Amino acid sequence: MEKPKHHIFVCSSSRVSGEPKGFCNKNAAGLIQYLQSELNDRDLENVVVTNTGCLKACDRGPVMVIYPEGYWYGGLNEDVIDEILDALESGKPAEEYLLK
After folding, report:
1. The domain containing residue 69 runs over which residues?
2. What does each C-alpha distance from 57 to 36, 38, 63 come to in angstroms?
3. pLDDT, tens digit, for every residue of 4-15?
């Protein structure tokens, strides 16, 4: 396996017990599918998407983190994901959605 250029973690709010709960869990499932579809449409093949347990930013969710850059984004929806991917393709952060 080739090391990915980017690894995107999307909060799905599962707890250590495996129990799904929280804001991101209720709102991220469709967004993960949309994100993967957009990556495919944009031919961004060297990107891995992983859903995670709670990232402890529920008040800003749904949340995702992009490594190796370390960008934390919140308030995700399909339009926001499009803007984040546009910025990722140009090598810059989508400043408006960065969690600070």
Report:
1. 6-97
2. 22, 24, 7
3. 999 999 998 876
Q: Is residue 1 part of a domain?
A: no
Q: What is the DSSP letter of 75?
A: S
C-alpha to C-alpha distances, 63 to 1, 5, 11, 75, nearest whole angstrom: 27, 20, 6, 7
Q: What is the pLDDT of residues 43-73, one digit of tens each?
A: 988 999 998 888 888 889 899 999 999 999 9
pLDDT of residue 34: 95
Domain with 10 in it: what CATH number? 3.40.30.10
Structural domains of the chain, count: 1
Cα–Cα distance between 93 and 18 in angstroms, integer?
32
Please report where in the chains the tokens 């347990």 appear, as a residue.
Answer: 53
